[in-house]
Design brief:
The chain is mainly beta. The chain has one domain: sav2460 like domains (Lipoxygenase-1, Sandwich). Helix content is 7%, strand content 44%. Strand 16 and strand 17 form a beta hairpin. It is globular and about 45 Å long. The N and C termini lie close together (9 Å).
């Protein structure tokens, strides 16, 4: 199935409050803070309900680093629960949360933009539900899923992308957002595309670019 993508909208951050992003919206990280160095990507979700009973969901977060052609050159460029630290030291995954219980961020990935190797032109944030097929789980059953970016220079939330679970009926994974270099700046695009995949290898097979747009 081919996914049609509307023309993205560009934004500059407000100094007083973060932007709540919609699909395909773009924000400039570098314009918001020319001295931006480190960011945190926080991923969160709440317990969902199935047949009236509370269910545990294990969402796994991935950061996939791509080159200027939008290709994954090496599996070591995937940061997740089995590869917590990038070889450059620029990206650190804080570890796996298997329940989503608790307030705030359930999984955190820290990125030092100043340490990223030049061959990494963009990176993509992805969530997938662990063991989704045998557990018969999908994102329509998960509540209050979100991704947010925090500027570690001042601990200020830069942007938040809220996800509506019912929009993703039957989907077991999401491409949440990507950050990429553009004209010597870092920009973030909210994507919010659902897909069906049972494990990491299937995600890698589906990841591709066409006309410089991410699609599955």
């Amino acid at each position: 199935m081919t996914l049609s993508i509307s023309a993205p909208q560009s934004f500059i951050f407000s100094k007083s409050m973060p932007i709540s992003l919609s699909k395909n919206q773009i924000v400039s990280l570098s314009k918001e803070d020319p001295y931006l160095q480190k960011i945190i990507c926080g991923l969160g979700w709440d317990l969902g309900k199935k047949s009236g009973k509370a269910q545990l969901y294990d969402l796994d977060s991935y950061l996939i680093c791509l080159n200027s052609s939008g290709k994954l050159s090496d599996r070591k460029n995937i940061i997740y629960f089995n590869n917590l630290v990038h070889s450059s030291g620029a990206i650190v995954h804080q570890g796996d949360n298997i329940t989503g219980i608790g307030d705030g961020d359930d999984e955190i990935i820290t990125v030092d933009l100043t340490k990223l190797p030049p061959e990494i032109a963009r990176f993509v944030f992805i969530i997938n539900i662990y063991r989704c097929i045998p557990r018969q789980q999908d994102f329509s059953q998960i509540e209050n899923a979100f991704v947010r970016l925090v500027n570690l220079n001042d601990d200020r939330e830069l942007a938040r992308y809220n996800l509506s679970g019912q929009t993703y009926q039957g989907m077991t994974g999401m491409v949440l957002a990507e950050i990429y270099r553009q004209d010597n700046e870092w920009v973030m695009e909210a994507i919010g595309k659902g897909f069906k995949a049972n494990e990491l290898d299937e995600i890698i097979e589906r990841l591709n670019y066409k006309d410089n747009s991410l699609f599955f």
